[in-house]
Write a structure and sequence with these properties.
There is one protein chain. This protein is an all-alpha fold. The protein contains four helices and no strands. α2 packs across α4 and α3 packs across α4. The chain is globular, with a radius of gyration of 13 Å. The N and C termini lie close together (12 Å). The mean pLDDT is 96.
Length: 121
Amino acid sequence: MSQTEGARLFRETWIGGVHQHFPGEPKAGYVTPWDDTPQWEREAAGAVYEQVRQFIEISGGNTGRLSREQKSRFVATCWTAQMYKHFEDPKPGYVADWPELPSWQQETDADSFEAIEKAMS
């Protein structure tokens, strides 16, 4: 899978997770379709996809043994690094540590990791 395809998988999984886990009506930006996603966000999604893909690869495919929390934390940390890359002074919510993220976001991050695992199997 190319990085662009991986970025799209990451974004589409994110949207699905938001629809599944978000309480109430999500902000439009949370569920913006790929074709309308800003370039910086596409690049960030591609970078996080690639980091997760490489992590799974160098782990010998043993990431299935990680807990959902561990998977979610990894995605959240990768995403935070992208926020610092793309924004000089990101909003605090964009760079919050994993324990401060809402549960819907934690679950959606875990879903994203698992979607990449599935795509690699």
